[in-house]
C-alpha cells in the first residue's frame, strides 16, 4: 500500500507516508484476507507489531452489495450536465490508462473486470432520458 520495498514490523505507518484514506484501503484489504481491523485501530496502533496484538480473525465473508433496480437521485453536477441538452452527451466520458507492473493472465483480468460492477454499485448506474 505504501509503495515501499520493505516495511519493518516496528516502523510507524504514518512516518512511512500512510494517511487516513490509505488506512481505509488497508482495512478493506485486511478484511478480504480475513483480518478484522478498523481505521481507528490504525490510528491507535501505528506499527504492524502493535496491530498484530489487537487484530482479530474474521470468519464472515464479505457481503456482496444487493443488486437493485431502484432509481438513485442525480447529484448536482449530473443535474447540471443533463440540463445542458448536449447533442452528443455520450461524447463526455472519462477514461484511464492503467499500466501493469507485471504481466497478468487475460482470463484473470476479465474475471476481475466482471466482478467490479458487482462490488461497486456506482459502476452499474445508467441514465435514461425521460
Structure overview:
With 130 residues, the chain is mainly alpha-helical. The protein is 37% helix and 3% strand. The chain is built from five helices and two strands, in the order H-E-H-H-E-H-H. It has a two-stranded antiparallel ribbon. The termini are far apart. The mean pLDDT is 84.
Fold blueprint:
Elements: H1 20-32, E1 35-36, H2 39-44, H3 48-54, E2 56-57, H4 76-83, H5 106-119
Antiparallel strand pairs: 1-2
The whole-number mean of residue pLDDT values reads 84
Structural class: mainly alpha
Terminal CA distance reads: 44 Å
> How much strand?
under 5%
Query: Main sheet, how many strands, which sense, barrel?
Result: 2 strands, antiparallel
How large is the radius of gyration?
Answer: 20 Å
The unreliable regions are none
- In quaternary terms, these chains amount to single chain
Helix content: 25-40%
Q: How many H/I helices?
A: 5
Order of helices and strands: HEHHEHH
- Record field, number of beta strands: 2
The global form is elongated
Question: Quick summary of this structure?
Answer:
This protein is mainly alpha-helical and 130 residues long.
Quickly list its features.
two-stranded antiparallel ribbon, 5 helices, 130 residues, mainly alpha
Amino acid at each position: 500500500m505504501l509503495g515501499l520495498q520493505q516495511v519493518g514490523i516496528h516502523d510507524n505507518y504514518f512516518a512511512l507516508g500512510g494517511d487516513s484514506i490509505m488506512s481505509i484501503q488497508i482495512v478493506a484489504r485486511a478484511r478480504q484476507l480475513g483480518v478484522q481491523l478498523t481505521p481507528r485501530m490504525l490510528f491507535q496502533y501505528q506499527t504492524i507489531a502493535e496491530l498484530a496484538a489487537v487484530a482479530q480473525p474474521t470468519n464472515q465473508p464479505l457481503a456482496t452489495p444487493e443488486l437493485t433496480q431502484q432509481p438513485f437521485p442525480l447529484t448536482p453536477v449530473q443535474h447540471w450536465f443533463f440540463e445542458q441538452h448536449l447533442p452528443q452527451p455520450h461524447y463526455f466520458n472519462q477514461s484511464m490508462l492503467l499500466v501493469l507492473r507485471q504481466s497478468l493472465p487475460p482470463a484473470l483480468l476479465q474475471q476481475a473486470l466482471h466482478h467490479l460492477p458487482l462490488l461497486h454499485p456506482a459502476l452499474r448506474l445508467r441514465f435514461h432520458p425521460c
